[in-house]
Design brief:
alpha+beta, Beta-Lactamase, Helix Hairpins, 5-stranded antiparallel sheet, 19 strands, 50% helix
Length: 589
């Protein structure tokens, strides 16, 4: 309000009126106050002279009786004090509250000066008081006579003046506002109209100019009208170019954020919203720090205040884990952020690194066995044939294990790098019933399962799904293989082992349940049983051995989830039960 001409005119008009009234009130009240105080001084001086003449030749007792009988001043209070400041007599004892005045500055002055006069404002009584002190010599001693007067008239008159000037201030302020509005209407109304037109032009809207008004303003309106026409044509061209550029940037696969020098977002494309998992909405002209909740992006923004360019890798884990590369550059009047999705490259890098680390660890055991057996053979050329055959058989077994490990590692690495076209093969209509029956028949033929009892409950003739036959068979086969392995490790060559396989359905899924009463899943593995190289263990005597190299369930999980299904550990022991849910084949319209 105060920054506008209209506000300044109103403010200064009212200010001058109030300043004039307040100055008049102050000068009037001050003059009246001084007049009453001077009058009190003259009257109290005359009274003190009369008192001094009357009691100068009397002693203290005679002076007190004389003052008590005579009435020198109706409005004044007379008090007598000795030179120590102790009160001797008071004409109005009911008002006397101070017995000693020795600590008073006026009293000390009265001991030295012929006459002391002072006026004060009593806040408690809300009135003005005058005091006059004079030292008078009696026949037997010297006393201090004090005259006190309450200027009630001054208080009442000042109250009336306050009310009068307050009402006058309200009335004149009202007329001052009216006068200022009249001046504004005559002078500033045409300028306000031009300002409104200019605002519409700034917003890109059409506006009409009024040429009515003083010559200076009408000439300005003509110039603005010509400028507006040129501006409209320029704005149309700029809007067209801006829309073309916006469409181009919106369809870029990279995120783009443009920020002004105050930290407000000037532009943000759709790719940025998708990459950062932001809610759909309008973010223009909103603070960058308040909208972007990623600490690394904010750190990058702060870093640009000291450097012209910066770069950082950001990890987003809101929904799907993403890795983003953000390059930022400081512009002349703002900042530019370019965000690219490097999730695929990062996942490939992680898969490669994990593959190397895990494979190196798992290769160590079979390679150690092969090396040890080879060294024994080399050091014992005359070894018995049966012992030599055992070592050679062990070398062959470990070589087979290495081959299977390499095959599974390559298969899992391809799954985790999302190369579905390589690992899944072409999708086709696959029958789960057929796959389960083939797997059961295959595993029943193994010699190590001759003591294991099988319970298969498949009440359906067909259970069709859309999948890769080889991939689904490998996933279900890995689960059954674990069931056989851990059941045989518990019961060995004794009866009692049981593997149950059943098939069920609901509206959208086929449910395959595979359970066994083997060694079970340790409690410390239930959370990450499907992670790579997580394997169960079993006790042999006093030692605990691990079984397999822990890739079967990791492969099964990636295959099942790659087909839109779910694999769960429903029970870790007694029996150990895995449930696989695969989506049914959709009926074609």
């Amino acid at each position: 309000m105060m920054k506008s001409i209209k506000g300044q005119i109103v403010f200064f008009t009212v200010f001058l009126v109030l300043l004039t009234i307040c100055s008049s009130w102050y000068l009037s009240s001050k003059a009246f106050q001084n007049s009453l105080i001077n009058q009190a001084f003259e009257e109290q001086s005359l009274t003190l002279e009369n008192i001094e003449k009357s009691i100068a030749k009397l002693n203290r007792s005679e002076a007190i009786r004389f003052l008590a009988q005579k009435n020198f001043a109706h409005s004044d209070r007379i008090s007598l004090y000795d030179l120590t400041g102790k009160i001797i007599w008071d004409s109005k004892p009911e008002k006397a509250k101070i017995e000693y005045l020795s600590g008073s500055a006026d009293f000390q002055r009265a001991l030295k000066e012929p006459l002391v006069f002072d006026s004060i404002y009593n806040r408690a009584k809300r009135t003005y008081l005058t005091h006059m002190l004079k030292k008078i010599s009696l026949s037997d001693e010297e006393l201090i006579v004090v005259l006190s007067r309450s200027l009630n008239l001054l208080t009442s008159v000042k109250g009336g003046l306050n009310l009068y000037f307050f009402l006058l201030m309200l009335i004149l302020s009202f007329f001052a506002v009216l006068l200022s509005h009249f001046i504004i209407r005559k002078i500033l109304t045409p300028l306000e109209e031009l300002s409104g037109v200019a605002s519409k032009l700034a917003e890109g809207k059409e506006a009409r100019f009024s040429l009515i008004g003083p010559p200076e303003i009408s000439n300005l309106a003509k110039s603005l009208r010509e400028m507006a026409e040129n501006l409209q044509n320029t704005l149309k061209l700029l809007n067209q170019q801006r829309n073309n550029l916006k469409q181009l940037i919106d369809y870029l696969p990279a995120g783009v954020i443009l920020i002004d020098s105050e930290g407000k977002i000037l532009y943000l494309n759709k790719s940025t919203i998708d990459m950062l998992d932001m809610a759909q909405g309008d973010y223009i002209n909103k603070l960058f720090i308040g909208i972007i909740g990623l600490p690394k992006l904010i750190e990058l923004y702060d870093e640009l205040k000291e450097r012209s360019e910066a770069e950082s890798t950001i990890e987003v884990t809101n929904q799907n884990k993403r890795y983003l590369n953000c390059k930022a550059k400081r512009l002349e009047k703002g900042y530019l952020f370019l965000i690219t999705d490097t999730t695929d490259q990062k996942q490939m890098e992680i898969a490669r690194r994990n593959f190397i680390a895990d494979a190196s660890h798992e290769f160590q055991t079979p390679l150690t066995v092969i090396k040890a057996a080879t060294e024994i053979l080399a050091c014992n050329p005359n070894m018995e044939t049966s012992e030599r055959e055992k070592l050679l058989q062990k070398i062959a077994e470990q070589q087979d294990r290495l081959s299977r490990l390499v095959d599974d590692l390559l298969y899992l690495a391809k799954l985790e790098s999302q190369q579905t076209t390589i690992t899944m093969g072409e999708r086709e209509t696959v029958d789960i019933v057929s796959i389960l029956k083939d797997l059961v028949s295959e595993y029943k033929g193994y010699p190590q399962v001759r003591y294991i009892e099988w319970k298969v409950d498949i009440p359906f003739s067909r259970a069709p799904i859309e999948a890769s036959y080889d991939a689904i068979k490998k996933a279900l086969g890995n689960i059954i293989d674990n069931a056989v392995k851990y059941t045989q490790q518990k019961f060995k060559d004794q009866k009692g082992g049981l593997i149950c396989i059943s098939l069920d359905e609901n509206k959208n899924f086929w449910h395959v349940s595979i359970s066994d009463n083997g060694v079970g899943v340790p409690s410390n593995m239930t959370e990450d049983i499907f992670a790579r190289f997580k394997r169960g263990s079993f006790k042999t005597g006093y030692r605990e051995k691990s079984a397999g190299y822990g890739l079967g369930l990791a492969i099964a999980k990636n295959i099942i989830e790659g087909h839109g299904g779910i694999i769960e550990l429903k029970s870790p022991i007694d029996p150990t039960t895995f449930l696989v849910s695969l989506p049914k084949l959709r009926k074609k319209d």
